[in-house]
Amino acid sequence: MTALLTRLFIKDYQNTKDPAVRAAYGRMAGIVGIVCNLLLSLSKMLTGWLLSSMAILSDGLNNLSDATSSVVTLVGFKLSGRPADREHPYGHARYEYVSGLVVAFFILLVGAELVRSSFDKILHPEEVFFSLSSMIVLAVSILVKLWMSVFNHKLGLLVDSATLEATAQDSRNDVFTTSGVLVCVLISRFTGLQLDGYVGLAMAVFILISGVNMIRETMSPILGRAPDRDMVREILQQVRAYPGVLGTHDLMVHDYGPGNCFASVHVEMDASGDILESHDVTDQIERDFQKQGIHLVVHLDPVITDDEEVNELRRMTAQLLASLKLGLSMHDFRVVKGYTHTNLIFDVVLPYDCTLTEDEVRGMIQRRVEEHDPRLFTVIQVDRSFVG
To answer: Model pTM greater than 0.70?
Structure first.
């Protein structure tokens, strides 16, 4: 069904990197979500009202919130597809994250209302009337939500959309909550136990937890989360494969929304080489990444490679850093010789999960260097890793 809808309603559906095609996927997902959730919501709310079942009514309200969420998703994809302008030179792709945040707040509002209604039902229980029609409505709802979960998950993978993945997760949650309602009605029918309010309360808590998790997931890219490790690995491997590149450091990746990635990296090249040739290599790197949808800025760092004493000191310092077992790396290594001592000047990259202060790290490195040679002093700039 997903493949059929994709072929019918999305032109050039295989070109998922195209912003227009990506917007079309989001538009189709939003429309399907609105239609399905509205039909489910109306059927459940009518059934819950006729049978006086708070659990079924709550499930219907949850589907109504899902329909509203689909509207927000639809609008979010529409706004995120707008081109860059004077006020927003990096584009509007982050609207997709904002729409996910709005969806999460809708879920929290629905969950809070269900908590209130369920407590009222617990304090003032009413008999839940059993009917075959209610069983059919709930069973069909489970099947529809299961299909919607698979549908949104497939689309989310195709266009790399966190919003569609969140929608798929929400549909999976609905499968569990509706299954709980179905079990509640059956228990009431065969045992006479009035668990309606308690099941409604459990569903409300489940919905609130889902809303909080969704807020956490959508806030992370807005605040500026660390880039995907596989993406970082691929960028570094590709850059280091170019002729003349000796090493890389200070990679920064900025996410301005799906398909709108900006990055910068320092590339080390032989200081004795032709500067025009080195510059041509860095230009080629930028052009190649531009074709892949990554706006990469490359900074050229010249490295002295023909001074054996400097090379030996660099190797020694790198080994000392490795012996600290803190995950440290270094770059921009220079040596300044004096009459009584020699300064080793370099930058150290400190992982964010390291609990030591910058002064403590400098002190540990200096002590190790002095143990190797008391005439060596370190001048260290401590950086934090931007790629995790």
So the answer is: no
